[in-house]
Amino acid sequence: MSKEQEIQRHTIAVLVANESGVLARVIGLFSGRGYNIESLTVAEVDTKEALSRITIVTSGTQMIVEQIKNQLRRLVPIYKVADLTTDGPHVSRELALVKVSSTGEKRVESLRIADIFRANVIDSTNESFVFEVVGATEKVDAFIKLMEPLGLIDVSRTGVAAIARGANPL
After folding, report:
1. Domain annotation for the chain: domains and CATH numbers
2. Ranges for the ACT domain (predicted)?
3. Cα-based distances in Å from 159 to 39, 62, 101, 117, 156
4. Is 143 exposed, middle or buried (0-12, 13-18, 19+ CB in 10 A)?
5. Rounded CA separation 138/73 (Å)
6. pLDDT tens track for 86-129
7. What's the rounded Cα separation, in Å, for the pair 119 and 99?
8. For the segment 53-71, what is each residue's pLDDT rounded down to a tens digit?
9. How many Å apart are CA 49 and CA 67, to the nearest integer?
């Protein structure tokens, strides 16, 4: 399989006008063409200019990702599209709240694993913990997988937040 045909995960940052309907148009672009969104985060980043940043994680061949970026650039009111995966070094993080219900040795083991992953206990009862874990998606995935046999009962994830390294803005 050539590099162009290999399916890869890409993190795409999109700077948009912070107005009603913009997110629906972006999501519509993906769903209308059968592209999957693995992670989606949106937040206002400039109140003065009324700008929001959408961070999308998707997978596809290089050709499909290029199509996605080109189609995004044609949407109004999108100001900038950047593929953080290919444009240079970037950092990305995800936050998850992970609820584990257990007693005895499983409860102690969940605390040990949380310590290894630098997860914080943000709520505790006699039967459960809620852990906050922050890091790369792979780290969050690994933590959740280790909590499954220890009594995992609920997970809430933020999705990926990512930004390019260096002094240049999006």
Report:
1. 8-88 (3.30.70.260), 91-164 (3.30.70.1150)
2. 11-89
3. 5, 22, 24, 18, 9
4. buried
5. 29
6. 999 999 999 999 999 999 999 999 999 999 999 999 999 999 99
7. 12
8. 999 999 999 999 999 999 9
9. 28
Q: Six-digit token pair at 99? A: 């609820």
Residue 87 identity (one-letter amino acid): D
> Is residue 115 exposed (0-12), middle (13-18) or buried (19+ Cβ within 10 Å)?
exposed
Gyration radius of the chain's alpha carbons: 19
Residue type, 109: E
- Classify residue 88 by its DSSP letter: S
For residue 50, which phi and psi values (nearest 5 degrees)? 55, 55
Structure tokens at 24: 């629906």
- Cα–Cα distances (Å) from 79 to 52, 60, 76, 119, 161, in that order, read 10, 23, 8, 37, 19
Q: Prior bond to 149 cis, omega within 30?
A: no
CB 18 within 8 A of CB 51: yes
Tokens of 14: 């999109």
Q: What's the rounded Cα separation, in Å, for the pair 143 and 86?
A: 27
Q: What is the reported pTM?
A: 0.89
| Average per-residue pLDDT for the chain | 95
Q: Is the CB of residue 143 less than 8 Å from the CB of residue 117? A: yes
